[in-house]
Amino acid sequence: MPEDPFTSEVIRSYLASTVREMVKATTRTAYSIVFSEGADFSCALFDGQTRCISLESGNPVHMASLPSALQALMERYPEIDEGDVLLTNDPYRGGTHHSDVVVVKPIFHAEKLVAFGINRGHWSDIGGMSAGGFSGAARDVIQEGLIIPPIKLYRGGRLVPELKDLLMSNVRVSDRVWGDLQAQIAAVITAERRVKSLIAKYGLTAVIDGMDYAIAYSKRRFLRGMQAIPDGDYHAVQFMEDDGAVDRSYRIEVHITKEADRFTVDFKGSDRQALGPINASLAVSMASSFCALTAVVDAYAPLNQGVFDLVDVIAPKGTVVNPTYPAPLYGGNCDTAARIFEAVVKAFADAMPERVMSGHVASGMNTTAWGQESETRNEFAWYMFPSGGWGARASKDGNNDVFHAMGNCMNQPVEVWETRYPTRIEKCELRADSGGAGRFRGGLGIERHLRMLARETLVSALADGCTQQPFGLDGGQAGSSNAFEVIRAGDGPRPLREVYDLPSWGKFSNVPLQQDDVLSIKCAGGGGFGPPEERDFEALEWDVLNGYVSPEAALKEYRVCIDESTGKIDRKKTEQLRSRSTHR
Amino acid sequence: MKRIGIDIGGTFTDLVLYDGDQNVISSAKTLSTPEAPEQAVRQLLADVGIGEGESFQLMHGTTLVTNLIVERSGAKVGLVTTRGFRDVLESMRADRQHLYDLQWDKPKPFIPRYLRVEVNERLDHRGNVLIELHDEDVRNSVGYLLEHDVEAVAVCLLHSYANPVHERRIADIIEEMAPELPVTISCDVNPEIREYERTSTTVLNSYALPKTKAYVARLEQAFSRTSVIRYMHSGGGLVSAEVARSMPIHLAFSGPAAGVRAATWVCQRAGISDIVTVDMGGTSFDVCLVQDGVPETTGELEVEWEIPIRARALNINSIGAGGGSIAWIDAGGALRVGPRSARADPGPACYNRGGTEATVTDANMVLGLLNPAGFSGSSLVLDANKSTRALQSLAEHFDQPVGEVAKGIYSIVNANMAQAIREITIEKGIDPRDFTVVSFGGAGGQHAVEVAKEVGARRVAFPALPGTFSALGLLAADMRYSRSKSMVACLLDVPMGQLSEALATLEQQGLSLLASEHGMADRFSVECSADLRYVQQSHEINVDLDPDDLTHERIYAAFETMHERLYGTRLEDPLEIISLHVTVSGRVPRPSLPEEEPGPKALPEPVRHTKVEFFDEPIAVFAREAMRAGMAITRPALIEEPDSILYVPDDCSGRIDRYGNITVELN
User: Fold this and answer.
1) Are A415 and B125 in contact (CB under 8 A)?
2) Which of A61, A143, B237, B542 has its CA 20 to 30 A from that of A399?
3) DSSP B568
4) At A209, which helix (H) or strand (E)?
5) Quick one: average pLDDT of B243-252?
């Protein structure tokens, strides 16, 4: 610990704001909506010993895996120089999934390596069998997209043009991808500038002390949060409902041991790896565990090495949470990550109900499409990542329409979307009754209708939670599931799976939707908390007034009679109803 | 004609009077009367000798609209949207404020779902009508809202920025059905792309409208028989009562804008035109960048997390750092300062009103930067022992002497403020070394020079007339009307003739608003700009346009220069134009500021010497009113103002200019 805790605190907060500035630089210069509105990228500063100092994340799954990605880069390149920019996305070497490309810039002071500026961002396309990624049909990691082993794209500040050509020849919409990569580079250049000016002001020793302090600070803070959690064993199970290939579910089991100064998350009992692309790379399973523990222990503890060092993750090889090469794993980054998060949080539900929440959308509902515009024949590729309902808490309702816990993407404005893609969005509406009933109700999911305007649009998705529902806690009911449906003129909505005879409800590739087909994407509502009959009558009347709960659902799920003329609860009838069913 | 600036804040109402005939400036201050604001105004007018029935021009700044929104005390509003989109307001952008906090609650929408109704209609992004609007459908929806006794209606339809036809028709129908009901349509208040931000702006306008309208009516009724009243908007200009009443959302950042105006003007008189204004009050620290005498503007500010207002506003970056900011130990055992504040009640511990937590003011007291006897302009007596006691528990936690903790609080709050300045300078490619930090606001005097050092600025100015500075700014503002319009297209596809025509239309709209202002303003001028981006990007950069010299090449070059300044790269890709902005302004004559020929350098006798923690020897304390033009400060000093104290540390030298400003050069 340095002598003056106040100067170190000033340096720590400067480093944190540097990372926030990296985020801004990326957002503002990015070419794709995935970056700029979706915020599907993360920025970080590491010290010269490759320890994480500070990170800001649009997508929590990115970050805990950064140390292993940096490790892989350093192993490949023991010699690095000022001006180098390194890249990798290899999911079997510290990566999350192919689309998340790590960009690293080493930062030097007087020829000494002092830090790394890092950006990991989701490219709009990474080659592979389906445009924009998310192929539910992939059976190995090669099919899923281009794997970039550790490379130096810039050497001493100069671009290696052959590498650029190689990369850009293997991705679709390459101009957009190159624009996004430049945004990532803008972020790491920002990091370099700021760290250098910090050193110029305070001197190298004080900055290195400040970095040590940042790690010690997070560790101390996390340990303090841990004190509130009783030592012992915690356990929960969650499932992935299928893998897009075989109609069977995959078990994710967590055994968490909490000691005074350590968490061990052991995935023993989890199912063997899947045939389809839902496997979570080890990096993803670790990241999801770190994030969930942070949510339970201290949601505001800045994550860095100080926290990572307090958590051991044991994931048996060859399982759905740590597959062996070449198992496909593109989707593990999203929905499987969210399931792991939920499993870890759920494990603490009995012991500390006030720190958890019921099940939530737990899916990115990742949907991608590719096609050519009818008139111009211009290519288009879009990527939609709708959000859904969040779980109710021990003392309040769940939030409506929020991105799942292992990401934090913004939705894409309809008006901007329609200027770019031949798709008209006809509805973005909260789904009545999608929130699980309970003393506290689950948040509502959203339903979106997309009308296809191109002659043909090839749609792919990789979404879980279409048959299983977000769980309720303490007697609360489950929320509604996700669904993909198609609506055609003169016909009601029909599940895509039935219309196209797909192997899965939510994981499919290149489904050829025709002009004027309307794709309906329905997102899950959160689970409820506590028995529905204990819901406050005024809260329920408000739900009915606002259409969050229909009068029918009020009767069926909450066993409450709504007076049609006033919209209020008919207390007498309700009492009768409830006493009748109690006597039953 | 006498000209009067009145700034009505939550606690005080300030007045500055400029009497053109006598060429004198006078000021007065009293407690605000929130229930009937005109009462405080009447009293102040009497204080400065304005008789009943005397005519004058009144420029008014107010925190009314901000308070209505922040305190959620606005009207019951109904919203009309395109079928399928009534939940845009509630979904917001679907992200979270805090990544991991499972107990976080999304902000409640300003209009509950049952008061959000849909009509069957649809436009595409070019403004083509895909589904016709039917009057009957509108009448049903509006009828429902009327049954629910809404006090105002907001209308926001998809793609209405491209074609207002359906929104206007709905407004007409509402007027037929309920002639008195205030209606805001999005194409009037903010015809720009992105539906959530436009809806939010439109809804907040409706939300603030009824009460603002009543407020404006009260003031007009009280004074308009004899006088003209104009209102300061977020962009630092003045608008008519008509605009204030129908577009109250433009007044949302009225108060802070006036301070920036004052600083810009006073400094320009003194020949300083590149400045960073810093206003440190009791709870917040507001900063704004002014280049070449022009404050930076933005098209969007948030009133709360993800509750945006899209309107031309001064780009004021505000953080929770002020004299009342509380120092605390966070869950990781680190010392933090703010954003929670002890506010005016109970205030810092040394105010002796029951506050026990250590604030920035208490730390400054321990450091010796404040006078326990209080300020000459207030009867408040400060209790230094209370400050020491408040810092005691922090001292024990860190096992450090109280003085060291006070230094820690001082350096951490300074670092926070420096970061707020970095965000509007270094992070945007502006080198703060070329800028003068201009400090006003009660608490800033003790920090400004150290904060300037922290960001590398070389000069600090403490302007003259600090007590009622914002009210002074009202007398330094022009009439300004801004109009915007989205125009989404590839730049190369837009013929310059079409661009010029679109700008001319916006200019005409602005000029027609200005037309009635001939009594107030002369020398009309026009500023044009466009929001541009590389075709694939999502965030725009605002670039100035010269309407008399529009070429693709010029616009392209201006954009690339700006992109490189902001982000370090030129991508040489095609550009897309998103929105156009035009501001027309009519210059309001400025008062003349009192001047004094510089005299000798020697300082007056110090009023006393005092011990300051940073130095072994006591340093001199001067009274600001005794500081005359030409005097030079060469040693560390404190300078007492009626309600503040300025701290001039070592490593710098100060002087008093002919206008009474104190400028401090950093070595």
Assistant:
1) yes
2) A61
3) S
4) helix A204-226
5) 95
Amino acid letter, residue B365: M
Nearest to A401 among B94, B104, B195 (CB): B94
A415, A444, A538, best to mutate vs chain B, most B CBs in 10 Å: A415
Q: Does B422 touch chain A (CB under 8 A)?
A: yes
- pLDDT per residue as tens digits for the range A465-474: 999 999 999 9
Residues of chain A neighbouring B427 (CB-CB closer than 8 A): 21, 24
- The CA distance from A79 to the nearest CA of chain B, in Å, is 27
Nearest Cβ partner of B94 from A24, A218, A410?
A: A410
Structure-block tokens of residue B124? 């595409």
Give the A window 47-106 contacts with B, CB below 8 Å.
57, 60
Cβ-based neighbours of B7, under 8 Å, separated by 6 or more: B13, B14, B15, B60, B61, B62, B255, B258, B468, B470, B471, B473, B474
Residue type, B265: W
Please tell me whether residues B23 and B132 are part of one structural domain: no
Tokens linked to B601: 């350098």
Domain ranges, ordered by start, for chain A = 5-220, 357-530, 536-583
The structure's pTM equals 0.93
Rounded CA-CA distance A496/A486 in Å is 6
CB contact under 8 A, B159 and A415: yes
User: Across the interface, do A428 and B84 touch by the CB < 8 Å criterion?
Assistant: yes
Q: Which of B172, B205, B238 is the last residue of a domain?
A: B205
Please answer whether residues A20 and B422 qualify as being in contact, where contact means their C-beta atoms are separated by less than 8 angstroms: no
Q: Which of B175, B205, B235 is the last residue of a domain?
A: B205
Confidence of residue B9 (pLDDT cuts 50, 70, 90): confident
Contacts of B253 (CB under 8 A, 6+ apart): B66, B234, B301, B313, B314, B316
Question: Which of B404, B407, B538 is facing A33, going by the closest CB pair?
Answer: B538
Spell out which residues of chain B touch residue A37, defining contact as CB-CB under 8 Å: 93, 538
Residue B297: strand pairing partners: B314
Range of the domain at B153: 73-205
Whether B550 maps to a domain, the answer reads yes
CA quadruple B108, B113, B115, B121: dihedral sign: positive
Smallest CA–CA distance, residue B621 to chain A, in Å, is 29
Does pLDDT of B98 surpass 80?
A: yes
Q: Return the number of CB contacts < 8 Å for A and B.
A: 205
Chain B residues with CB inside 8 Å of A39's CB?
A: 95
Could you report the per-residue pLDDT of A411-460, keeping only the tens digit for each? 989 999 999 899 999 999 999 999 999 999 999 999 999 999 999 999 99
User: What DSSP string describes B224-267?
Assistant: TTT-EEEEE-TTS-EE-HHHHHH-GGGGTTHHHHHHHHHHHHHH
C-alpha A440/C-alpha B577 separation (Å) is: 47
